[in-house]
UniProtKB/TrEMBL annotation:
Transmembrane segments: none annotated. This is SGNH hydrolase-type esterase domain-containing protein. Keywords: Signal. It comes from the Bacteria. Residues 1-21 form the signal peptide. InterPro entries: Ester_Hydrolysis_Enzymes (IPR051532), SGNH_hydro (IPR013830), SGNH_hydro_sf (IPR036514). Residues 84-276 form the SGNH hydrolase-type esterase domain. SUPFAM superfamilies: SGNH hydrolase (SSF52266). The keyword Signal applies. It comes from Sutcliffiella rhizosphaerae.
Length: 301
């Protein structure tokens, strides 16, 4: 419950002279010299010809290279696709600004990068979704296509799984009940991540952790903080099975806040709460050196 990469040119000339009369010998030598001169002239002509052809070919290659170096603007795709998948935190419920909660903070971060021209967002957040709901939604071709085309994926889930235990056992809550559901949650979360990786096996995944929405008004119920901590540790243990994934802790944001961070429903974060969650996500992105990774990706292309 707690552990969670040569040319060598060789030329040989043999001159043979046959002994004859002096006149014939002289005549013979003259003819051979003339013949040799003519042969040399022909050879030189051939050499000049091929040199000229080589120069033309080389010039064509150089021209071709120069033309290739003049890459037209827009040759590389400099757009970035962000996909947010999950529950009401992804949907941004409680953000009175209507900007979509922490998603706007993350989008602004990528839009500030010089190597990105356009940032697109696909928000697949649905209020009330639990892990079993995400598994069902992963059967939707549109959801699958969105995940497939994502450069980065952000997921929020688990809060409603936990709250299901609270709602169904409000009058008789025990650690045993949370522990039992926590194990089932781990199995379902594992299935969710497995399905996401089937559609996108390389993009980075950030999974936002859980927080205790009751802390602000029920600080005396310390057991609930322990339950949330245990569930976050379970999430980490599941993520450990999947490369290129990161956990974003947000639990401490809501411990003794200096100002109200919850919406009027006293359950969802308000605009300030979402901003702080977004900041934690950006810290995790920077910790993973995402900038270096993207620069290397563009250079390889």
């Amino acid at each position: 419950m707690k552990k969670w990469s040569v040319i060598g040119i060789l030329a040989i000339l043999i001159i043979s002279m046959v002994s004859c009369t002096s006149e014939n010998s002289s005549s013979y030598v003259s003819e051979r010299v003339k013949e040799r001169r003519e042969n040399q002239q022909e050879k030189q002509l051939l050499q000049d010809f091929f040199k000229r052809e080589d120069n033309i070919e080389n010039q064509q290659k150089i021209t071709s290279i120069e033309e290739k170096e003049e890459v037209p603007e827009g040759f590389f795709d400099r757009s970035f696709n962000l996909v947010f998948f999950g529950d009401s935190l992804t949907q941004g419920v409680g953000d009175e600004s209507g900007k979509g909660g922490f998603t706007s903070t993350v989008k602004d971060y990528y839009e500030d990068k010089s190597y990105i021209d356009n940032v697109t967002i696909t928000n697949l957040g649905v209020r009330g979704n639990r892990t079993n709901h995400l598994l069902k939604r992963l059967e939707d071709p549109e959801v699958q296509e969105a995940l497939k085309n994502a450069d980065v994926i952000f997921i929020t889930v688990g809060g409603n799984d936990l709250m299901k235990v609270v709602r169904e056992n409000f009058l008789d809550l025990t650690f045993t009940l949370f522990d039992k559901e926590q194990k089932l949650y781990a199995d379902r979360l594992d299935s969710v991540l497995g399905e996401v990786r089937m559609h996108n096996d390389s993009s980075r995944i950030y999974l936002v952790g859980l927080f205790n929405p009751f802390y602000q008004f029920f600080q005396e119920i310390e057991e609930m903080n322990e339950v949330v901590t245990n569930w976050n540790e379970t999430t980490l243990s599941v993520l450990d099975k999947y490369p290129n994934t990161a956990f974003v802790p947000i639990q401490n944001i809501f411990f003794d806040p200096e100002e109200n961070l919850l919406d009027d429903d006293q359950f969802h974060p308000n605009q300030k709460g979402y901003q702080l969650i977004g900041n934690n996500i950006l810290e995790e992105i920077n910790r993973f050196n995402e900038d270096s990774d993207v620069d290397e990706m563009l250079e390889e292309e």
